[in-house]
Design goal:
Strand content of chain A: over 45%
Helix content of chain A: under 10%
Strand content of chain B: over 45%
Oligomer: heterodimer
Distance between the termini of chain A: 38 Å
Radius of gyration of chain A: 13 Å
Chain lengths: 113, 116
């Protein structure tokens, strides 16, 4: 049973436009959510996180939105840049982040120049 | 930012041999380290949680006698794949969390293991 779902395997956008990556979760105990970016043959790099006490967190071009009632979060990247092309993983944890992280399958983002 | 170093980045070994992978937190103390395995086009699957000074906690379905984990210090954890078989070929990634429980996980660059 997949507790964290990234239903779209890939997304392609034009440079300068907005990229929206979606993530759904099923476990209502999750209260801490993170997005990681991964290049081929490298480990994931932490991007941004959000606690369930918030519904939005912003860091530069990256904004994460959390809709607890829908058990849905999204990552917005604006403006998108070619260097953003990578696989993005959504992850969730319970107990404020002290529990183990559960990852989605990832979504490949391609930003075209 | 926090750096986690993983070594080696790739290794090829013969069936039946053992391979050791090291994971080091370079600029912070990691009370907890995690070992993940990733198959092509799949998510990162947690194998085990390694706590400094105590035995690792393995996820269901992970053979603890095959994947030996040692977390001898606050900056080093090792994963040894014993008696490797071709089906153990995979991308292994370690991660570490600083002492504060709400700090994000920082990942190493992974180790590509190929067993021939």
């Amino acid at each position: 049973d997949q507790q964290v779902k990234q239903n779209s395997p890939s997304l392609s956008v034009q440079e300068g436009r907005i990229s929206i990556l979606n993530c759904d979760y099923t476990n209502s105990m999750f209260d801490y959510f993170l997005w990681y970016k991964k290049y081929p043959a490298e480990g994931p790099t932490f991007l941004i996180s959000i606690s369930s006490i918030k519904d939005k967190n912003e860091d530069g071009r990256f904004t994460v939105f959390l809709n607890k009632s829908a058990k849905h979060l999204s990552l917005h990247i604006v403006p998108s840049q070619p260097g953003d092309s990578a696989v993005y993983f959504c992850a969730a944890s319970a107990q404020g982040g002290s529990e183990k992280l559960v990852f989605g399958k990832g979504m490949k983002l391609t930003v075209n120049p | 930012g926090a750096v986690v170093s993983q070594h080696p980045s790739w290794v090829i070994c013969k069936s039946g041999t053992s391979v050791k992978i090291e994971c080091r937190s370079l600029d912070f103390q990691a009370t907890t380290m995690f070992w993940y395995r990733q198959f092509p086009k799949q998510s990162l699957m947690l194998m085990a949680t390694s706590n400094e000074g105590s035995k690792a906690t393995y996820e269901q379905g992970v053979e603890k006698d095959k994947f030996l984990i040692n977390h001898a210090s606050l900056t080093l954890s090792t994963l040894t794949v014993t008696s490797a078989h071709p089906e153990d070929s995979s991308f292994y990634i370690c991660s570490a969390r600083a002492r504060h429980y709400n700090s994000p996980l920082h990942f190493g660059n992974g180790t590509r293991l190929t067993v021939t």
